[in-house]
Amino acid sequence: MAGTATSTRLNAIVPPVALAVLVVSLVTHPTGPVLVLPALALGAAVLSAVHHAEVVAHRVGEPFGSLVLAVAVTIIEVGLIVTLMVSGGDDSTTLARDTVFAAVMITTNGILGLSLLLTAMRHHTAIFNPEGTGAALATVGTLAALCLVFPTFTTTRSGPQYSGAQLAFAAIASLVLYGLFVVTQTVRHRDFFLPVDDDGRPRQEEHADPPSTRETLISLGLLLVSLVTVVGLAKVESPAIESGVRELGFPQAFVGVVIALLVLAPETIAAANAARRDRVQISLNLALGSAMASIGLTIPSLAVATIWLDTPLHLGLGATQIVLLVLSVVVATLTVVPGRATRLQGGVHLVLLAAFLFLSIQP
């Protein structure tokens, strides 16, 4: 009990302290070894965000809880992409594509594979609901093709980009699909997204008493502060990241990968925690819900932002990226259809993530 109370107090202190570090960093523009402090604050804010997201999720219940972190992180992701696009010049034309595609690969292969592997290592087989998980995967695949693949092949405008009308259609279609999925997950077919027993029926679980309304509202506010701080500190660290990428000889597109890794860190930790508690369905909800929100909310927001952004929005993927995306969707489909998975499936997805990261460094 004492350890829990200490942890609670620390998680209440970390967000305002990290926010103070962010404010000081924005004013002083630290360089060199001093950047270690914002980096430490960034890591602490990520862990705090996970804690407060779990508190809110416990209060609102599933599957609503899985939406909290996914939507919040994605909204902040949009702000980070737009900010870097405004200040990045010509090098930022593909930043949105690189970041969103990295988010899709990290969620559908990294978070999903890690969750399956952790659960299967403890229980030999990870059991989940194929109806809800399959519906989420189908939506992710459709959104990815609509927003990241088609722009490569359209001919109205030269280059891997949509025309204004095409971008507007993709944005509206993305919002419609995302809205339909949220209604399905939270209203019409909630049981498709709840943890299941070995026989496939929704699990009746005993839970600790949910936090009070006051505690939930405090955690919600601290969650938002943590997420804003995570993205703000990531922006503070971004010059060091960009210079580090250049010094290592990596392609500029790898900056988008690093941004996605930072932004998705809270969801990765939350999904891993759920998998360790044998609630792999919640982990899959987080993984695919995050991928869906990353496309379905980010692309429409960027479509609106192009009204005042001078930087072209190159969304179309290259040939290697398209092959990776198609392979990931096919493998994920084969993983999801049976409703159960072993360590093998988790390992396959993690190898696909490793291939994506390696090919991002050595295209």
UniProtKB/TrEMBL annotation:
Gene Ontology annotations for the cellular component aspect, listed alphabetically: plasma membrane
Compartments where found: Membrane
Pfam families attached to this UniProt entry: Na_Ca_ex
Domain of life of the organism encoding this protein: Bacteria
Swiss-Prot/TrEMBL keywords: Membrane, Transmembrane, Transmembrane helix
Protein's UniProt keywords contain Plastid: no
GO molecular function: potassium:proton antiporter activity; sodium:proton antiporter activity
Membrane-spanning residues: 12-29, 35-55, 67-88, 100-121, 133-153, 165-183, 217-234, 254-274, 286-309, 315-337, 344-361
Domain Sodium/calcium exchanger membrane region: 38-186, 219-361
UniProt protein name: Ionic transporter y4hA
